[in-house]
UniProtKB/TrEMBL annotation:
This is Aminopeptidase N. Residues 235-446 form the Peptidase M1 membrane alanine aminopeptidase domain. Its EC number is 3.4.11.2. Belongs to the peptidase M1 family. PANTHER family: PUROMYCIN-SENSITIVE AMINOPEPTIDASE. Keywords: Aminopeptidase, Hydrolase, Metal-binding, Metalloprotease, Protease, Zinc. Coiled coil: none annotated. It comes from the Bacteria.
Amino acid sequence: MVDVRSAASAPKQEIRLEDYEAPAFTIESINLIFRLHDDYAEVEARSLFRMKKGAGSELRLDGGPYMDLLALEIDGSPVPDDQFVKSAEVLQLRSVPEKFELGVVTRLRPRENTRLEGLYFSGGNFCTQCEAEGFRHITYFPDRPDVLTRYHVRIEADTKSCPVLLSNGNPGQKGDLGDGRHFAEWNDPHPKPSYLFALVAGNLACQNDSYTTASGRQVDLNIYVSEQDLDKCDYAMQSLKRSMAWDEEVFGLEYDLDVYNIVAVSDFNMGAMENKGLNIFNTKYVLASPETATDADFDHVEGVIGHEYFHNWTGNRVTCRDWFQLSLKEGLTVFRDQEFSSDMTSRAVKRLDDVRVLRMLQFPEDAGPLAHPVRPEKYIEINNFYTTTVYNKGAEVIRMMHSIIGPEAFRKGMDLYFERHDGQAATCEDFAAAMEDASGADLKQFRLWYSQAGTPKVTARRSHEGRDLIITLEQSCAPSPGQGVKLPYHMPIRLGLVGPNGGEVTADLEGDGKWEDGSCIVNLRETHQSFRFKNVPEGTVPSILRGFSAPVVLDHDLSDDELAFLAVQDSDPFVRWESTQDLYSRYLVKQVSEDGEGHPPELLLQVFTGHLADKATDPALVAELLTLPGEIALGQKMESLAPERIHTARETLAKAFADASSENIIDLYQSLKAAQGYSHEQGAKANRRLRNVLLNYIALMPDGEETTQRRYAEADNMTDCMAALSLISHSNFDCRDKVLQEFYDKWRQNDLVIDKWFAVQAQSKRSDTVSKVRELTQHEAFTFKNPNRLRSLISTFSMLNQVRFHEKNGEGYRFLAEMIVRVDELNPQTAARLVAPLGRWGRVDEPRKGFMKDALMSVLKVSNLSDDVRELVEKSLA
Ligand code: ARG
Ligand code: ZN
């Protein structure tokens, strides 16, 4: 055997979509035996290969540097040393027969695996994470999503420390091996790519339930967690059952195995993983009880449980041909989980939440050096492309198709997609083609959403001719890395016309579009395009981009009075909210740029008090109408970021609202007090949301400290507790340190709650936050090994605390650079996810700009930097 050591340290080469080649073989089946021991694991893999006609006889397998190759056989005989070449990443067999069984035995060290990729040890249990390219760290294999095969798995382990042995598919035989060891076998009848393989072995408690599918299949449902968490799985289980029913009802899709297993692990790089029949979850998205989880946490559990369940069809039954197609499964599955959550909770509020996330995370990505299309064209490290663009913008792309062709044609398109591609590895193109064929619509131009990066800007201008209202839309999209010139997109713009008395006006349209439920969806395809609405009553106000029908930045010519009118009158909740936000933002942006101390105009106060008095609207939506635009959103409306001034302007306006409406705020706050204690029902959740928004204003009033502290002390659930704690953490209240300490002492045994304790301090707007955050990395509860802990402190600080991260002396940037380097030594994937905030130097002035670049440079200087971090830091500097 020839060992090519130089390859181990060579940086990874860029992979390109245009270089895609289909695999040269098929694999009929794989038999895997895992022999798990305390300090190592041995993996025996036997796969039946069949070379395709005309393919050469050479075989290339993917591998990794962290495993030892113990044996390599073809049809039971060892492959001679001169017949293969092994580097750190590739195992190449010179010549293989047309059909053969490949035998590979590898030895792994799961306990040393801090990268949390492949087979690793977490909280006393063995578990795997194979997406995107983790399976190659378990055995040498064609680790690519277009190689599908049937898996048969046998796990052998210590009976006492690993009573639970799980893998994909349906359970097979199990039994005792003597010597204190036992085994279990699993068969997955559905061919799958290696990234969907999973194994779990450990000492876990189980919550069990069952579900009967529409066609009568009995499915055994299990959620595995550590013993002390068994009382926190109920909501996840209910969510799973709701997901199963929803997918049957809405998409006609049923589950296809006898068991559905979910395992919660505390060390996990991402949210969760849809492995066939054996989902592995970050504990954060499984465990929830009113005492330990906020209402938002409950919603996330439901959303992620749904997301992974929905992957069973969109991801598993139909998977991706290559990783450039990632959004085929992720964008589509996010769209599906958003729809599910909308149906389970409030569609209007869910949409606001999703749009807020998109704008806060995806828009900056699309506007910065890491911008890439929903279907990227090249990458160095694929794990760096599990981005908000692929996921959230990807979901918007699906949503737009849904709007353009309508819900019925969309459903037909989904049916056709499954009819054509079930059991296959497909592409984004296949999906678009199915939608096109099912609807008869022409989506040729629409496909640019997959290939062009950047957030388009749409400008809407009005003109009148007689009684006709003409709305002219103009679109443009700024250059992004590697894409200088953009072609015009096809986008669905949902419009409404609100008559002078507040009612919906329906007017004949001249132009490309159609009316549907009081709104008109127009197709914007040109750079510049007009839509004429005939015979519109005077005083009618257009409501543009209802439901945020396209992921764009809209610039319109509505006056303050018109915005105030829509804020109250529009039937579309998104536009009501957006108009309110626009009104607040306009004023705040002016305050920042003019450094004015002017009292807010009467109109703003009127709108605010109008919302306060609104009894007809869902309190959860009222809560959003009463919330000022966040500092990040405000920053996006400015040429160059002025973090302190944004912060001050926003605080000042909040104080003005609090002063001007103190009585109404307090009255409403009192009236929302839950009569009968805690409930998780929608109405109760909505009331909490509103009440906690009001508390923000109350905290600014003369006895704010007292009220906030009382709210904290009396809270009988984590939602209220965190609302108060967050205010206390921002404040200079005398009680601050004492309350934070008490909270820590009370919850020190609960990791997920302690994550909140770190996060609430990382988000503090106090001027000492950078040094406090740095201090917290020395805290006994802090660890560089746990991704949740890292994110709760470091990502919360750098991504959500704009004013403190952008501290003028550059301390925030230097801190982040140091953290990236520290984390990279243990966990490159998670380290790489910390890089993005440093790439936003184009948005700030000197000296910040220089400090940010220096921080990036300091990371680049480190030797042995991972490919993951290097790729993003280099791009961030470009
Ligand atoms: N497919 C998973 C999801 O449901 C994400 C897993 C990605 N993991 C990774 N290490 N890249 O979205
Ligand atoms: Zn997913």
